[in-house]
Specification:
about 150 residues; alpha/beta; 3-stranded parallel β-sheet; 6 helices
Length: about 150
């Protein structure tokens, strides 16, 4: 599976005029994101050492479904620190609390996965603002120094 995904990513990179790096987005509570996502990160760093690898990860709620999820978070975050250039963390519980508070004021009380994903993606768009970048070659270095 790792070879198939690696070839797929390589194929997409070859279509680009200028490749600067990757931005991975996934959760670390357990499952595919925390295990296989970290393994893909390692492969990408080995195959494309000159590129930047950024990660946006969502940490699970403190008391979740699996008793091992906090252990998965620790192992995955440690692995990401070794193989990535920058990590942006979102706390699932804080996002849920914030959205619940906002929706209570507007009359709604139902926070769902779509709301959470919308919040994360809009936060990332405000943070990164790719179209506002004047010097593309410095973009990831500036992001690293200012955010991470």
């Amino acid at each position: 599976m790792l070879e198939i995904i690696g070839n797929s990513i390589r194929s997409e990179i070859e279509k680009m005029d200028y490749y600067m790096g990757n931005h991975f987005i996934y959760s670390l509570g357990g499952g595919t994101g925390s295990g296989f996502g970290c393994r893909i990160t390692e492969e990408m760093k080995d195959d494309f050492n000159a590129s930047f690898n950024f990660h946006t990860v969502v940490l699970p709620v403190f008391k979740g479904e699996s008793p091992l999820q906090q252990f998965n978070v620790i192992l995955s975050a440690t692995h990401l620190q070794e193989h990535s250039d920058g990590i942006i963390f979102f706390l699932n519980e804080k996002i849920h609390t914030f959205l619940s508070t906002c929706q209570d004021k507007s009359g709604g009380v139902n926070v769902n996965l779509e709301n959470i994903n919308e919040f994360i993606s809009s936060s990332l768009c405000n943070l990164i603002k790719l179209n506002d970048c004047k010097n593309v070659s410095r973009f990831y270095q500036d992001l690293l120094s200012e955010v991470c």
